[in-house]
Amino acid sequence: MREPDLLYQLYERRLVAALDPERIPRHVGVILDGNRRWARAVGTAPAHGHRRGADKITELLEWSEEVGVEVVTLWMLSTDNLQRDPVEVADLLDIIATAVETLATTGRWSLRVVGSLDLLPDPIAERLRAAQGRAEDVRGMQVNVAIGYGGRDEIADAVRSMLRERASAGQSLESVAESLTVDDIADHLYTKGQPDPDLVIRTSGEQRLGGFLLWQSVHSEYYFCEAYWPDFRRVDFLRALRDYAQRERRLGR
Length: 253
Prior knowledge:
Blueprint: H1 3-18, E1 27-31, H2 35-42, H3 46-67, E2 71-78, H4 86-106, E3 110-114, H5 122-135, E4 142-149, H6 151-168, H7 173-179, H8 182-186, E5 199-202, E6 221-224, H9 234-245
Helix pairs in contact: 1-9, 2-3, 3-4, 4-5
């Protein structure tokens, strides 16, 4: 074993040993950013970067499972991403669908696809729904895959869903407006029934949310990592957990 590899392993063990089980985030959101820039840096096509990024997902989930994270939400494709070059988008959608299908076949994690699947080509949407169907009842860590996702779109969808539900119950718009609470909207979000994210990680050095879990992340802690997503390592993940554990969470109080 090379000395750098040994040193990293020793460092990882030290980080793991220092983690307080009481300070592990229940829900971790990850913005998988930097696939295209990674591909450009190594002189290859964007699709290669997206494939390398997809290969990293299982590793992240294994790391999360090892330390006791209960929910992981992965932002794999935004609504803005759909406006890119059609050829690249087609390649990316196939890579994403294949990655989700692979996660489903492991039988290790419960899957939920979150986002506006009606924005995707029908064959891709059907593949994603089928993968979710195979894994949504698995007993294990909950994994949300955000595909065709935008935070504003999610809130708008939640409000529409709530209004339709109230209208079907015979309520007038005036009565809904008078009784509406934040919990009413939360109950119709894509992540309904799940805890809000305690920690949100974004790779590639960008320091913005870009619309990720806008409603749910109001009290989240943020961690920005310089590494492009394909280069994200276990040590980077452990550092994010260490940083989270050292913060004093006031939750707005």
